[in-house]
Amino acid sequence: SEISQETLRSVLAQFALEGDVLSVEPYGSGHINVTYLVVTSARRYILQCMNTSIFPDTENLMRNIELVTSFLAERGKGTLSLVRTHDGRTYVEDGGEPFRVYDFIEDTMSYDQSPSPEVFGMAGEAFGVFQKDLAQFDAGLLSETIAHFHDTPARFEQFRAALEADPLGRAAGVQEEIDFFLARRERYGIVMDELASGALPLRVTHNDTKLNNILFDASTHEPRAIIDLDTVMPGSLLFDFGDCIRFGASTALEDEKDLSLVHFSLELFEAYTRGFVGALRADITEREAELLAFSGQLMTAECGMRFLADYLAGDVYFATKYPEHNLVRARTQIQLVREMEEQQEAADALVRAVMEETA
Ligand code: ADP
Ligand code: MG
Ligand code: MG
User: Fold this and answer.
1) How many angstroms separate the alpha carbon of residue 324 from the centre of ligand 1?
2) Per residue in 61-73, pLDDT tens?
3) Could you give the CA distance from residue 18 to residue 6 in angstroms, rounded to a whole number?
4) Ligand 1 contacts CB of residue 33 (under 6 A)
5) pTM over 0.90
6) How remote is the CA of residue 34 from the centroid of ligand 1, in Å?
7) Is 12 in contact with 86 (CB distance < 8 Å)?
8) For 84-120, what is each residue's pLDDT tens digit?
9) Local structure of residue 106 (DSSP, 8 states)
10) Which end of the chain is more exposed for a tag (fewer CB within 10 A), N or C?
11) Does the beta carbon of 259 sit less than 6 angstroms from any atom of ligand 1?
12) Can you tell me the distance from the alpha carbon of 204 to that of 237, in angstroms, rounded to the nearest whole number?
């Protein structure tokens, strides 16, 4: 998917940039969009060709980003800043592909690897600040650009459909893993049900809380901006918190084959919780706090059943490098859920302690 310099230059000509374009080069290590660094005679920008196979609804996606970033900017908070086109639009289409431009956020750094407790705590703080800054934003204004993204009961139904279809006859070999997810079915609806009843507040969720989507100040290491807002949607803060715990409080990668290396780390959980709750303070509700530790289990189980469903379906959704790759991933998630369940009381006690300290 090489885009010619000629196309890139003609796309850029439609945006109200300062200075003359000197260069446009591929940039960064994102996997979803195609990202370029644009250098002009006046300053630097980020140009992105958006991924329409993952996000077909560009109009609503850009509207979500515009709503969230303008809310933050009006309150003086660090955020992405969209550059408009000469006729005031937030993106252009060229050859069927949508493009947008952001101001380059200068003098920042980010982390790519699996975090130390210190770095993971900083990530918790960054996402806590993001939630705090958006606490007064009406998340009901946002579109659900990917329907049922963290709707665990809907994910469970998809898992059951894959199990029923079993097109490759793989189910017989993984009965233990299947039973694991069937046995926990009563818990999958807790967050969705309480969002619906109003017991949990509807908030902005980021939904792609990877470490490299946080830009930290290069000298002070304070969080400067949360970027990569394509997946911002209405939901519960438990979705983001739980997903961070899923990948960040594990001692191994998501596709580690040696399960003896895969553990839920209470130390990493505590670091993230301190950062997150410390930044949010009174803006987190009692009920959200009660469910923080549980949300790690819920998001890990949801992800695990998606991996297992994809294994049963014949590896149609997640990219795989070998035939059992999705099964290996499902097994790490199962192991993590087991350990999170074993340590739930300790994790709940930690949350309560942090809540009291920061009250
Ligand atoms: P993807 O969805 O592909 O991960 P991102 O929006 O995260 O795309 O962008 C990819 C990378 O480009 C980021 O990880 C970051 O390094 C860099 N980047 C994106 N936007 C900016 C920006 N406004 N300023 C500085 N760097 C940015
Ligand atoms: Mg990214
Ligand atoms: Mg992204």
Assistant:
1) 32
2) 999 999 999 999 9
3) 19
4) yes
5) yes
6) 9
7) no
8) 999 999 999 998 899 999 999 999 999 977 779 999 9
9) -
10) N
11) no
12) 7
